[in-house]
Batch of 4 targets.
Target 1
Amino acid sequence: MNQLNAENPNYRLCVQCKKPDESRYCRSCLSKNNEQKHGRCIFCKQIKTGKDWCQPCNSKIFQENFDNWTSGNDEIDNFIQNTQLSAKNHHQILEWIPYNRFGKPNYIAEGGFGKVYRASWKDGHITHWDTSCRKWGRVNSGSLVALKSLNNSQNVTLKFINEITLHLKVHEYCMSDTIIRCYGITQDPNTKNYIMVMYYAERGNLQNSLNKEKKKQHKKQKSYKFSNLDLNIRIWKHKINILKYIAAGLRKIHGKELIHRDLHIGNIVCNRTSPRITDLGLCKPANYNEGNNMMYGVLPYLAPEILRGQDYTKASDIYSFGIIMYVIISELPPYYKVAHDEFLALEICKGLRPEFNIKVPKLILHIIKSCLDADPSNRPDAKYLSRIFYDWLIDFDKDAISYSESINKTELIKQIEEAEQINNNSSTNSSPLTIHPEAIYKSRPFNYKNLTEPKNSDGYYEIYDNISTMKYSESLLKSDKSDCLECEITD
């Protein structure tokens, strides 16, 4: 066993037979499970690899249609064809979708490297081969999908397409409810930019979802007459539930030995029931040149080691998750008072972190601190975070009717109550936020020089008044660029 581990550090035990394997299930157990669950194909007698999905038969059907479509780009054609030939269920396929199969696109938002629209898809996505009609069975015809147009993608490369469709690895056995799915690729006939056709999250961005939940809980308060304290605790529960879903999505990504690399609040969208992570692998422009030595990302969400030019890691994703925790709990954008430039990057390396304007329970603040630790090896992994949030939600459910009247309160509920009493007695400024004109929350290229070795602020794990003991310096608030560090940043 130890020898296997030494030779292949990525192995794990099959969850069924406990034999070493690189996948969740070994090939033998997976085959047995598929036969029990899905049966055999009535035509080729092979074991089906998914619900109503025979890989050998469906591969032949896809292949027979290869000459009937083209994206205009041989590399994209080959990539889509390979996914169709290797797909073991309908979650793993991509289609080339003619642009005229969509209704009129409506603009939603613009990101760092493209624009997002929504449009109805006349056909809907493939689920199985309908043997009686001799055509692909589809669902959700006429439903809305998100169209992500990629700037300057006319000559997009296979490597880039591979990266932005990494989600296919996440949906190995079934559709993940924490990762946004991509259905295929199309092309704008006017701009010639390629477009990712993706699942449409109807609640939109995370802030919209939070606002809707608050309104919902206020309505419940009027109907059921529960206290303000109970109201606040219900909102805390909702926020932790959101964090649980995001951590679970990140756990799935990391479990496939993938790294998101551009995790920020703009890449978290919500459907009716849960938030989902999107834009997996999309952290640079479509016309990215390997030789330009530029890094990409939303500066406030980037770990100090990334700002210094090191490679993206799972630990750098965890740092980004820590900033997301701050945003969800504070309902403030990170570092909104200052310009997002090399001065901020330098201060982050010195130990600056976003500031709360509210009291935060110590248990929760400690998790944020650990995620934002300057030393990547001190940050928790996604599996640990997912478990912590799951356990905390159990704490909430123990006294779901009235938290304020509960006798056997858990430590988390006690800390939330204490924090809310302090917050209710404090005079927080409720005026509209004034965001610095150079606080930019889009992915941008940067290449900073001469940043200091990252470190935590003094007393980082001893003082729990805030994340960091370090405050904004006067020079940072002024952001005088006359003494600019040697750097390069491009809008």
Target 2
Amino acid sequence: MPAAAARGGSRPGPVLGLVLSGQFMALLDVSVVNVAAPSVRSDLHASGAALQLVIAGYTIAYAVLLITGARLGARYGYSRMFRHGLAGFTAASLACGLAPGTGWLIGFRVAQGVAAAVMVPQVMSVIQRLFTGAARVRALGLYSAVLAGGLAIGQVVGGLLVSADLFGTGWRPVFLVNVPLGLVLLAASRRLLPALPGDAGRGFDLPGLLTLAAALGLLVVPLVLGHELGWPGWGWAMLAGSAALFAVFAAVEGRVAARGGQPLITGRVLGAPGLLPAAGSIFLIMAGFAGFMFAFALHQQAGLGNSALRAGLLSVPVSVGFGAASLLWQRMPRRLHRLLPVLGLAVVAPGYVLVGLLLGGGGPVGPVVQTVLAVTGVAAGCAYSPLFARALGRVDPADAADASGVMVTVLQLGQVIGVTLLGTVFLGAVSYPASSAASGRALLVTTAVIGAALVVAAGLAGVTGRAGSAAVEGRTVAEGRAAVEGRAVPRGRDVPGGPVE
């Protein structure tokens, strides 16, 4: 692992807290605006399409530019780009909170997404650079817990802030709350964040970046806006264009590699033991999780008449279970670690379906449902976190930035496509206003689709358990090779300039 040119006195624990706080801010803004949407519509007199762009503009920019953000970190420095992204995100949040009209708000939300795309990939790269072995697995567990908590906590925080109507500002505090937090993190980053320089001589692969960004844009835009606009013809044309551009991207990357250049996504990254099947399984897990959270919240608010705050609070058990399992799965007997993703998914798939069955008649979200949600969340965390550690724990540190961009893009696209496709399934099965029973039946249909997708995820997870036998859970490629060959396993040091084991 390359030595990190850390500043004297920097400590990995506070650094991890710092970058994960930035990650949390970015995740919070994915869901917090959903709660504020009715207030935005009323205050700014926004049309339905404009309101959808306020919500989706952030997600579209974020998802499309994540790989670009990862490559910027690899070239110009991970700490530097994290700070630039954080500063941009804080400034864009202030602009959103002060936006005088809908058009301004849409533009500032896109700027927020661009800044988040610069900041977020550096979080995983910092973890890859500063932590190794068991410490890396723990750090990835905390990362997973933040990922799980951001969606549910966003609803709770949004509900609290909008309901409080601080100083008559309505929806604006859901954005302005990021400003003091961002300023504190920026100040702390100058003292705590080690200097993790990139490789200024590394190729930028501009053709690859532009092609991939265009392909992702053509994929994400119709998926996000299609249902709201009635799936117009241009949406299907964009999806077809996206497939064509992904093929062009593969050809472009092949030519770059053949010329001895540095492609955006190297074959070394994609060839890391188990990374591709792990990415596929994680994509389906996150699509199911995000899609369920969306449908469950909508069922509670539009079907059962719960407030946004209550809907958020009732979503906490599944998120807490997910986050807790992400942190604690390593304490389970080590002989179970290889099978844990498959075992977890064997519980998650029927767990979602059982929630659908319990609520399919239109009944309230009672203690039994809450218990099933908590167990399902724990099982999802037990599946997701070992898969994530398995995928990135086997990547050579030299490829950490590229692997980080790939995996974070997989996570984000999983959430976007999960909400979009499963939201379409849910809303296609019910038309509001509707009875609680009709809404419950739509939730049952949705959970059945999620269950089927997670059966596929379990199959992919089983493949990862057989891939890369030389790699050990939570270790780098070099460490796995050393362990197999009987040599001393390289250990990091809890000192500036070295990774933490």
Target 3
Amino acid sequence: MGLRTSWPTISASSRTSAPAVSHTSAIALMNEIFVARKEAETPDANVGLDFPQDPADAVGVATSFWSSVNRRDFLTTGASGFAVSAFTIPVTRWLVTPADESAHHSGGHRVGRADLDELREAADDARRWDSKYGGGNWKAGSVTACLQERAAPLLQGSFSDRVGRELFSVTGELSRLAGWTAFDVGEHHTAQRHFIQALRLARAGGDVQLGCYVLTTMAMQSLLRGFAGEAVDMAQGAFARAKGQAVPRVLAFTKLIEARAHAREGNAKAASGALAASESLLEQARDNSGDEPTWIDFYHHARLSADAAEIFRDLKNPKAALAWNQQAAAMPSGAFTRSVGMRLAIVGTAHLQARDLDHGLALGHRSVDILTRVQSSRALDYVREFNVALTPWRRDPTVRDFIQRTRKELGMAA
């Protein structure tokens, strides 16, 4: 609602005797009205960062954030940037209490199975489109609209404890997906808020597995923003809290992200230990287990091997990186466009570390071929890292041509 201004009324008899309002006073009055209206319309800079203890307050915070997040003023000036310290209270509160006691609610519309199925289908669609086209595609971007227009009214409805737990869980996964797509296109302040709300919704649904996964995703954002030490803490906390409650595949992914964070810190021993733990947990997982959540079905040994190549690239160990890459099964670029493009850049960088320019450049060109089809600032970071690894050969004509190609086709800065 905008600010409704009440103007004073002036009787006909007093119009001639009333003192005239100066031009300067009129301008001042209009400025006050403009400022008041602007303040009423500008979203709270901290919206979405709260992690309320009370479930009803949590729903209010989440829905308020969803109603603000797509507004232009939020995306440009309404929110502060990413701050790893903003994760402190949400992470602490989840680690202390990862599941609320009850999820029932009495309100409006009676939430049923069809409502839950619709939200799950929206989440499945978003995951597929994100993998294929990146977080900037229109389908992935529609997740926030689904949260505001479909999930928010359902959270205000009536539901039993059982239905409520499912509703909170699937809405939490949608919020995590919204965060992931924002993260992928470089909107880190927005992504951080989505992740915090996803973690709170997972707690409201009593879904410790989802909470573990969301916290692991938060750790991944932190490490890729340059906070590897905090990422290690978050991943280890997620694993310790969910152990005994989460299936092996979920725990294995948490150990993988811990390994990646250790590698960013240059700790080869800790990275190798966490990677080995992830591989051991994957061996315990049953591929077709009915009790595994669908959102973790992407994590198999092929994904572990691909990430292991990145881990050893970060550790400047190209021999190990290329050995792990040999174990990673080929992924169809039509279904995993972004992942294939990033992997080619990672392996190409490892070849450059091994002083193999020809092979590295060939993979670099293939990476660019694929990444021109996706909208992902995160994927472009891998090409930037590849370009940095080309530094020893900067005067080589083939290298100069490649750098020029990335500027022209991917919009890379000089």
Target 4
Amino acid sequence: MGQSASTSNSSNRVLTPAIVSSSSQSPELPNEATADVDYTEDIPDECLAYIFQFLSTGDRKSCSLVCRRWLLVDGRNRHRLSLHAKVEIFSCIPSLFTRFDSVTKLSLRCDRKSMSLNDDTFVMISVRCQKLERLKIRGCREITDDGMAAFAENCKNLRKLSFGSCAFGTKGINAVLDHCKALEDLSIKRLRGIHDGANTIAPGAAASSLKSICLKELVNGQSFEQLVIGAKNLKTLKIIRCLGDWDKVLQIIGNENNLLIDVHLERIQMSDIGLAAISKWVNMEILHIVKTPECSNFGLVCVAENCKQLRKLHIDGWRTNRIGDEGLIAVAKHCPNLQELVLIGVDATQASLAVIAANCQKLERLALCGTGSIGDQEIACIAAKCVALKKLCIKGCAISDVAIRALAWGCPNLVKIKLKQCRGVSSEVVECLQRQKASLVVNFDAAGSDNEGLDASMSDGVGQESGLEFPEMSGQMVVADVPSNSNGRLALFRAKLGLFAIRNLVACAFRRW
């Protein structure tokens, strides 16, 4: 009844829509079963792979189980792979990389309670994954210098390498730098295999390709001095909680490198000598000076006078009162392109904020945290003169309802404001602010919370590596490709013990912005 004839070849069968009879509400089904009809067989593999890219990890895994073709298409076009790198994964490597033979981004992670994969497994991965361009290793303590050297020989196309909490040392790192000539991004965190500063790490064959170096929580930071100095085309440098005499290193780099754009210096042995050295990087656009108590207004003035392209400036004065109005006024006068300014524990007053508001007409993001000198007058000055301001964070400052009323009539482009631990501000005036500016997003917490510093800490939020999610499944191998954020265990440990409570003052106010 209105049905097309079927053919003997199942691949050419066409499903005819069911017809609803006027005498019955139940549809009439075709004579042949329709379960074998593949509506996607005319879709090219490239288009099918493109569709898979828009699916979540779980949906993509489910789709790979639909049929052999989908399994094959998914495997050949899966470029990112994340593995829970336990020792038991060894037996899964051949079948895993036979299916996923186009992987260019690989993440290996093992928790502290488990034994990680060893050199044999690591080398086997390198043999089957020679197209690898990005590698991330976390907690793989069984990998030695020899394993790292063998891996580098097989994966010479690496462009980005990040590892933390590993046990290999200078020999393994030098092997990577010697064999991976295209390496551009190197991130090293809590490397345990370097026991003294006798063995240095040189840039090797990657000297001309390295563009970004991040060193974090290294006890023997002096071993990496030659690496930083020898990277001639370096554009991003982040040194966070690393021991060593960094004034000397920065002086040498200042005389040889004019390409640096992004610099993050946190809790390292550095003084105004180092700031004067980095002031020679005239193209610098982003600067973070975090908890360096020996730095003062003198060093900041040197930077401001020479680095006139600054767009983002973060200063955590650690309440040492060595950086204040003098340095900030110099920034305001010489850096008109400033778009983001974060001041934590810095004694800024109306004198400097007025100059910043007048000269930095492009300022869009401002954070004032843990500063006793910030009051109603300072906020009123910002409200009246910062016309381009879009996002404002005020935390731990001595302001009252007067400041909030000033914001209600100023800053016409303001879209978001955070008010934390400002006990002089009432909820009633905040409600009035929201009524006055209906589109404004207000995040208000008068008392603040004890754990909030962990969520917004610059020490652990800036420059941190993005982790990968490893859901538990049957067996010892887990495959995923959706990134998520992971906080360092060190920060979590400090938060749980309640240490450094004074540092919980919003160190990175724009983390979620």
